[in-house]
């Protein structure tokens, strides 16, 4: 094994992974710097989710290495990987999966309550995150009484409440309307930046990718390019990357 570069908090080399014999990643290498917001772009089915799942230790790649903070992840057993995910990583899915029996603040507080944090402390932290995410007025409502955008904000609060070292975000606004999408993304990325949370954001939307510091693009399970974002739309850049395959 070759040790990863010192300045990358998360690093992967030559990842290969197939789902039931169908290749999803075919030799992807990537490094993420501490505090960086990295977009993983590319069309649907290009391997973005599979890459995030390998990097977060949810999936063990068929081949290749994943390192977090200079420690190998790909050689860890299931219990150690689960502990790493619980203690250091956060994950936001395209569809918010909240516990239906719990109200919004209880859902947001859940990771702290499961760690044994006192209810009063966990509730205070949850209410603060719900306020930052503009859903504090929904704190006592259960998921069925919330709009989809509100549910997603509660799921984001739940992912951020532990202030994870690395946040994995998979198409977080896929199910939202355009206006909600922009607001939710801006709030999420502002929170990640202000807490220096290293963030990997999988998205097929070039406008979303343009909000990150840098974009790596996957096509058919291969990395085709990487570029620093300039703050303007990346549409042309990603289109150009696609043409270079
Ligand atoms: N559990 C699975 N079983 C079988 N094939 C899968 C599974 N998960 C993903 N795949 C396949 O692996 C390839 C990569 O999928 P993946 O979800 O990683 O891509 P993606 O870029 O995240 O796509 P999307 O934007 O649609 O979420 C696709 O061809 C997909 O159909």
Automatic annotation (TrEMBL):
Q: Is Nucleotide-binding included in the keywords of this UniProt record?
A: yes
Coiled-coil boundaries: none
Report the residue ranges that make up the ABC transporter domain in this protein. Answer: 10-245
Pfam families, A to Z: ABC_tran
What protein family is recorded?
A: Belongs to the ABC transporter superfamily.
- GO MF assignments: ATP binding; ATP hydrolysis activity; transmembrane transporter activity
The protein, known as: ABC transporter ATP-binding protein YtrE
Checking InterPro entries in the record gives: AAA+_ATPase, ABC_transporter-like_ATP-bd, ABC_transpr_LolD-like, P-loop_NTPase
Tell me the SUPFAM superfamilies matching this sequence.
P-loop containing nucleoside triphosphate hydrolases
Organism in which the protein naturally occurs: Streptomyces hundungensis
Swiss-Prot/TrEMBL keywords: ATP-binding, Nucleotide-binding
What is one cellular component GO term in this UniProt entry? Answer: plasma membrane
